[in-house]
Amino acid sequence: MKRIATLVCMMMVAFSGLKAQEIVLERFDAVPGKSHFITATQPFSMLISLDNVSSCTGVSFELRFNNAGSIYFDGWTAVGAFPSDGIVIIDESNRVSGQGKITVGALSLQGTNGITFDDPVVVQLNFVVNTTAQHNTNTVFSFVNSEAVVAQPEGTIVNLFGQPQLFNVHGYVDVWPGDANNDGIVNNKDISQIGLFFDDGDPNGRIRGFKRSPMSTNWAPQSALAWDSVRVTYTDCDGSGRVDINDLLVVWANMSKTHTSIKRSDEVSSPVSPTQDAEPVVGTIQIPVVVNTEYNGIGVSGRIDWSASAENYKVVGVSKGSIFAGAPGFFSKPGGEGSNYIDVALGYFYPSPDVLINGEIMVLSVEPLNGGDGSDFAYAFKNQKGIHSSGGIFDLVTSVLPEKLAGVHVYPTPAEHMLTVENERLDISQVVLVDALGREVLRADISVGNFELNVETLTRGGYTLLMKGKKIEAAVPVVLK
Ligand SMILES: [Ca+2]
Ligand SMILES: [Ca+2]
């Protein structure tokens, strides 16, 4: 038994002695899972190091690559064992023929009796990818004439084995705005696709996205730089560089339209219900979400945030408001455990006439946690967009949470005769009181100070007081009784 063990041991030593002396190329800029591709307009870098090479004092090699017409060498960085004055790099790439060739030499400059390195990092090489790089082409980097100078057991030059590395090029692709799964038609599957990739596009997130320029939503191929996951690129219908609730509006504006660009079999299972039909939740308080605009459109989207009231209320549902009561498009997505927002998009499908977006767009079903009657419930409508039947997307208004409106106090609520607005903010210049149907019932210019609004003659019920300024709009619910 002991003899067998000894034999195995000896064999292992023998095999490890046979292990190839290698030169290794590694992507330096990308996280695992994103290192197999490079993206047009973006820089990338690679680290060159040696493996299984002891007592090294120098390295030389040529790095060859194709696609040199769109991939350019962009300098080097001495990050490894060798001093920068011992590194020589010559770029002889030919952009016309497309043949890339970079000659690299790195020496310790101390001879074989001086300092030596085991498995040293040699150098970092930096590249950029031109905007003209063809999408879905491949670039292969390979080593030619790779050698290392080793000092032990005696000064000699050894050949290095280098594995070629292939990178797929992400270039520009054609996005038909609304055809989120790029199958040639705009339909409910595109809604599912948006649900699948919701929130992707964050520069620091799972899948990095890129804004389209221009951000057109016209029904025509729009050139877009491929995202880290190419199929998510099509999901960004409005070209904002992020997949969110607003992309649904473009699906609706281009509903049922077709194109004959190359179709891809990108079938995905549906993680969300593509069509939702929410009714107000029975036994809850109904809070209308009201906007007061002069825009016409077929749909609206955005995020309803009730953080300011989260201690006292819980939102358990959302349904269509009177403006969109008959709209077939409705989609909502709660923010998830512990969050206090819901993303909502709703509207009519192409071809539909525009409606005036003024009044109750949706209704929240709210449960009180501490016995409240809803009169002190506050929400903000954020990132809100509207879409015109022509496909054009516009900002509705910019609103902020009342809680962030430090310096504004509206009381009493419920109110009977007079409503007091205490304002310390310079950026608020007007208050507008609108009823549940979005009708303006009262408007007043204000400045810093206390202002009394006479509400005695108004019908009793729920209203929204909009605090307006050039760059601000905040909604404060008000109840008259
Ligand atoms: Ca589609
Ligand atoms: Ca988007």
Structure in a nutshell:
This protein is mainly β.
Task: Write up this protein.
This protein has 481 residues and is mainly beta. The protein folds into four domains: 21-170, Immunoglobulin-like; 172-253, no CATH class; 285-385, Immunoglobulin-like (Sandwich), CATH 2.60.40; 402-480, Immunoglobulin-like (Sandwich), CATH 2.60.40. The chain has helices spanning 2-18, 188-196, 230-233, 246-253; strands at residues 22-27, 37-39, 43-51, 56-65, 71-77, 87-91, 100-107, 121-129, 138-150, 156-159, 161-162, 165-170, 172-175, 222-225, 285-297, 299-305, 313-320, 329-334, 341-347, 355-368, 380-387, 393-395, 408-411, 418-423, 430-435, 440-445, 449-454, 461-468, 473-480. Strands 2, 4, 6, 7, 9, 10 and 12 form a seven-stranded mixed β-sheet that branches. Bound molecules: calcium ion (CA) (2 copies). One calcium ion binds next to helix 4.
Key terms for this structure?
481 residues; mainly beta; Immunoglobulin-like; seven-stranded mixed beta sheet; five-stranded mixed beta sheet; binds calcium ion
